[in-house]
Write a structure and sequence with these properties.
The chain is mainly alpha-helical and about 200 residues long. The protein contains 11 helices and no strands. The chain has one domain: Hypothetical protein af1432 (Orthogonal Bundle). The mean pLDDT is about 95.
Length: about 200
């Protein structure tokens, strides 16, 4: 008897599954880097839980899964950054220099670009968030690929209550991120936008 297919937000991208998918597609140095990134992110997010009561790291792992399985982007730096993209926000110990030392400067750069100052409030938070959008707008396309993969995973989890106001999240995504394709007209970004638009139509129907 077949096991029931788990709900999307209950799926995680296991370490062994990741290794299976990339072992023949990246060089051994990149593979070691990616495994290290997986383990660091798993440790940092170990006790975090999302609004849908699932472990936060499941979300992180699925962002890497989108990059690997759906986009088939076998770039070791981008896969590593997709796993580490929230580490600076959620750790009081790890810094950009730690990431640079343990991995490399480009991975650290991507993670820094994708890091928000989440502990600010009010006007300061609004100003910081706007600076974040502008920084990402003019960052490398790899930064945008990771960000769009993160947004896509969240879109897929909206029906499970991962965001308190899903319609506001969709509005912010379209307003702040879609226009970034005018700078980087990249097919991977367009593929993710098409999928997000499909999910939006389903939610609004």
């Amino acid at each position: 008897m077949n096991s029931p297919i788990p709900l999307y937000n209950r799926i995680q991208y296991g370490r062994d599954d990741l290794i299976r998918d990339i072992a023949e597609r990246v060089d051994p140095v990149d593979l070691t880097t990616i495994i290290g990134a997986y383990e660091m992110a798993s440790s940092v997010h170990e006790f975090q839980v999302r609004n849908d009561s699932t472990p936060y790291f499941w979300h992180i792992s699925r962002v890497a899964r989108i990059v690997v399985q759906e986009l088939e982007y076998y770039n070791g730096d981008v896969i590593s950054a997709s796993l580490l993209h929230d580490v600076l926000e959620d750790s009081d110990i790890i810094t950009a220099e730690v990431i640079k030392y343990n991995f490399n400067a480009y991975i650290s750069y991507i993670v820094e670009v994708l890091t928000k100052k989440i502990h600010l409030f009010g006007v300061q938070r609004e100003q910081s968030d706007q600076e974040y959008i502008e920084r990402l707008r003019f960052a490398s396309v790899d930064c945008k690929i990771v960000k769009f993969a993160e947004r896509l995973d969240n879109y897929r989890c909206l029906e499970y209550g991962v965001k308190r106001n899903p319609f506001r999240y969709i509005e912010e995504t379209e307003r702040d991120y879609y226009s970034m394709t005018e700078i980087d007209d990249h097919p991977m970004l367009h593929r993710m936008i098409e999928e997000m638009d499909r999910i939006k139509r389903k939610l609004y129907s």
